[in-house]
Amino acid sequence: MSTTTADEHHDDHHPSGIMRWITTTNHKDIGTLYLWFSFIMFFIGGFMALIIRSELFQPGMQFVDPQFFNSMTTMHAIIMIFGVVMPAFTGLANWLIPLMIGGTDMALPRMNNWSFWILPFAFAMMLSTLFMDGGGPAGGWTLYPPLSLQTGDALPFVIFSIHFMGMSSIMGAINVVATILNMRAPGMTLMRMPLFVWTWLITAYLLIAVMPVLAGGVTMLLTDKFFDTSFFNAAGGGDPVLFQHIFWFFGHPEVYILILPSFGVISSIIPTFARKPLFGYSSMVYATASIAFLSFIVWAHHMFTVGMPLAGELFFMFATMLIAVPTGVKVFNWICTMWRGAMTFETPMLFAIAFIILFTIGGFSGLMLAITPADFQYHDTYFVVAHFHYVLVPGSIFAIIAAVYYWLPKWTGHMYSEFWGKTHFWLSTIFVNITFFPMHFVGLAGMPRRIPDYALQFSDYNQMATIGAFGFGFAQLIFLGLVIATIRGGAKATDRVWEGAQGLEWTLSSPPPYHSFTTPPNVDNEWNWFTRTVNDEAIKTRS
Amino acid sequence: MKVNTPKRSICYILLVGLIGVYSQNAWSDIQPYNMPEGVTEISHKVFDLHMIIFYICCVIGVLVFGAMAVTILRDRKSKGVTPAKFHESTFLEFLWTAVPFAILIGIAIPAAKVLIEMEDVSDADMTIKVTGYQWLWRYEYIDHDIDFYSVLKTSRDEIYNRTEKNENYLLEVDNELVLPTNRKVRILLTSNDVLHAWWVPDLALKKDAIPGYINQMWTEINEPGIYRGQCAELCGRDHGFMPVVVRAIPPEEFDAWAMQQNNKTVAKSGGSDTSLQQGNENVANAKETIAPSKQDQKNIAAAIEPQAITNQ
Description:
heterodimer, A: mainly alpha, two-stranded antiparallel sheet, B: 5-stranded mixed β-sheet, 5-stranded mixed β-sheet, 7 helices, 10 strands
């Protein structure tokens, strides 16, 4: 494919063994590191979820102390958000963005290495707090004071590790922006970029905008605890609600950081298996940008019960309801992409379809939560737990899994086992619903979230949820086995891999060369920009 | 595709059906739970809003998932179809921006009306001040000079599975909040330590109790009865063990009860009301536990020792 240059040859003398991974500045290696890190954290966070679900299998306290239970819910959230979904998306960005825009690598390779290698230390520190005096953080991942200030020795370590995670994310985001704006192949204009690149560009701006806000908020907690300030201490003239405003000004864009790249992944997969161009490309870009904009003006819908003035409650209700519009546009566009296509249902497509359906269900409960008077009933119950797990597990996590199945043959050069992929899909989809659907019911019936023990009428549905959680957890071991097996061997993948695949990454060999696109592709000739399809003839004659 | 598609779809439908039947048998007394309709005018309005938006979501869901089902069953490569080439339509994009927007306006208007009504605490007949502590509630009847604490009554033996759990497990307290029916009651909320939230689903009332703030809300209960709820904001180790119980009684009975309580409070100066004393001790303990954050970690470790649930 691409010609070997002297330069490339020189770079191939990279260290081998563990030093290859520690010193690497290659976007593919770093992408792999991010993805494996995320996968490991997924099992750690999942293990914590199973501790939570075991305790909730029956009413009464069976296995753990309530304080430890609280620290499990707190750590489960922090790990799943900062340790699983965000690194997985950064890993996908590292692997895919240079390949999709025809760039040689990420724009800032050394910073790329650093932003990854911060993470294992940050999470090692976070996990070590479980063994400290007073236990791990147990005030919820939202760290609301004054409760979070009652944390034992863990607090400064947790805040320090959050700072690390924030630095890592900001550096990753800067790298993505610099790469997308500077490394595109000639002819790859912004409105020609694949949706995954677009959604990541917007996500990166969100990250740069809000991670410093979180850093500021947690630093104020730190000074309240150790340096006698009273930012959040009412007795000293401070305001406990201020923290919630700061936190959710970060927190709401954060939840879109967790979902926008998924939209990009789904927008890549659906056209491939429908064998039809993505419907409404430009409206997809505008919808993503609108969602990002709205994410900055809806934060207080997380705090309807703190006693805001009526005008505030009305504003945040209306603004929140508006999000349904661009999100709806995306769902309609995906369905129109499938409409009158010629679909096949390989594993990535199955996960993508499940994503659309189950994410939409999460969107419905989100719309219900936006209605302030009803939110007073839903707030801090299992209904909310059901809502955000629907958008995060069969939402973000399913999109990440779909992405892995979709690009794994490209990354490894081997096809995965379609049988085990489909088995993994069906088990995951069935169990994820058994886990989270009953939570809607117990929440509506009055079960608060974050409680280690519950009234008797909630027993049946909690038992279902626990059974589902164990099923879902063990189904992921299939995925682990499948990924390892595919890396080690399997049928040889073609360059195109999927019959309907469109995009520059499919014009490279499978696996792609260690340094790809050392000569930039001529995007103008190779693409039919009207139908967004590849001109095969032009690629064959690529010099 | 190796398997022909109709056969395959039937297989899936059967599979889902089987799971349904199985769950019917395994959890035979299971009821699909919904939000309680409640016993106040507001709670009925909230319930109606909840159901309206739920039905709207159902209709949209049927249309969206129906369209997906059609295309998934029809537009299969295995059926030899050729993919269409269309990929944009300004008209459609406009349509599916405008129609949802119109639906949202239709929801927003009634929602705003209910919200405005909920936030109108004027002209209350009486006022109760509720204070959250780790992990109990204090109720002060501002107009009646009544003041007491309300602590979980469920025994430790029940919680740790040493005896049978009673039907109000975790939803029972020593002193219930007694309220009159058919009177507008204003509830002031604050906290003495961390955030709490006072929630009774049947009254559609939930608001945070925040140190340094006084939040307010109101209710007018239509039916006498006992209404149970829980703390709904994570407040530490025993967050799950600080229920709220409201006993609503007719106004005349309430007046008699209030009179009796006043007498008891006077008599109490002789020192006989154990429940109040117990409550006070509990608060004394609780106050120690929320000692200023600058205290050393040992105090904090003490703070997370069981208290509310050891009370019995």
